[in-house]
TrEMBL record:
Official protein name in the record: Unnamed protein product
Length: 282
């Protein structure tokens, strides 16, 4: 799928989620199908995710999709309806796509200035757009944190509902993966209070997480926490207020995650997961 087609598909999805009209199930299903195709392409082709990552329109679209879902949840809450389930699945697909695209941007940020300039020239990309994307990370970071906070609240409320709790847990994991990628690139954090709030929720949340999902939650959460602790102002606030300590998250999530990795047989974890645990063990 061409980059212009991907952008058009994202725009259609954004308008679909923004619409106040009754949306037919087949419209959601088609949007989900298109998102799955783009997900596969951006997972396997680095040039696709890199080119998408330089588009400010794409980042604005991600921000709009996530923020509109925040607004939907504020108005309607979590309901066991076809529309809610399809809508949440579609938003999760877009968050996963944003996760892939953020990998593309992080790949570009690892290049030298001359290599980035060469990439821009070869792909008809404005160099200013490449540099400006980082400023948009702040918006996506904020709306994703807000959505994650709401998902945690709703998961706890609906944890006895197997279908809803499964959908919400998968969405939480996807959000964390996106957040851990976003914060891998240094940018200006705007709302420290929201980060404190969400990390505080996770400290209390562990007892609600199914054992089968503990590893999936723990790894991106620890990555995210480690990334934001590279922000000097955030660390200073932590030292002054003692509102949140990295050791709390580490004790709550890393130790059990490491224990899972140590006790699983060869089929329990993928090689990638084992490698990731080993990195944090060092």
């Amino acid at each position: 799928m061409e980059i212009t087609q991907i952008k058009q598909s994202l725009d259609v999805t954004s308008k679909l989620l923004k619409s106040t009209e009754v949306t037919k199930e087949n419209q959601f299903e088609e949007a989900l199908r298109q998102t799955a195709i783009i997900l596969a392409q951006t997972a396997s082709t680095n040039i696709s995710r890199q080119l998408l990552s330089t588009s400010k329109d794409v980042w604005y679209c991600f921000e709009s999709i996530i923020d509109d879902h925040n607004e939907y949840l504020r108005k309607h809450g979590v309901e066991k309806t076809d529309e809610f389930i399809l809508r949440t699945r579609l938003v999760r697909g877009c968050v996963l796509l944003a996760r892939n695209v953020s990998v593309g941007y992080n790949e570009l940020m690892m290049l030298s200035t001359s290599e980035v300039r060469l990439f821009a020239n070869e792909n008809n990309v404005l160099l200013d757009d490449v540099n400006d994307v980082k400023s948009l990370y702040v918006m996506d970071d904020q709306v994703t944190l807000q959505l994650t906070s709401k998902y945690i609240e709703e998961f706890i409320t609906n944890q006895n509902n197997v279908e809803l709790s499964s959908i919400l847990m998968n969405a939480i994991v996807s959000n964390l993966q996106f957040l851990s990628n976003l914060t891998a690139v240094k940018f200006q954090i705007k709302n420290y209070g929201l980060i404190f709030e969400v990390l505080g929720q996770f400290n209390k949340f562990k007892t609600n997480i199914p054992t089968s999902q503990l590893f999936n939650v723990s790894l991106p959460l620890i990555r995210f926490t480690n990334n934001i602790y590279n922000d000097e102002e955030f660390v200073n606030l932590c030292l002054k207020t003692e509102t949140m300590k990295f050791s709390d998250i580490f004790t709550t999530y890393f130790v059990p995650m490491r224990d899972i990795a140590l006790t699983e047989d060869d089929n329990g974890l993928s090689e990638e997961q084992k490698d990731q645990v080993e990195v944090f063990n060092q």
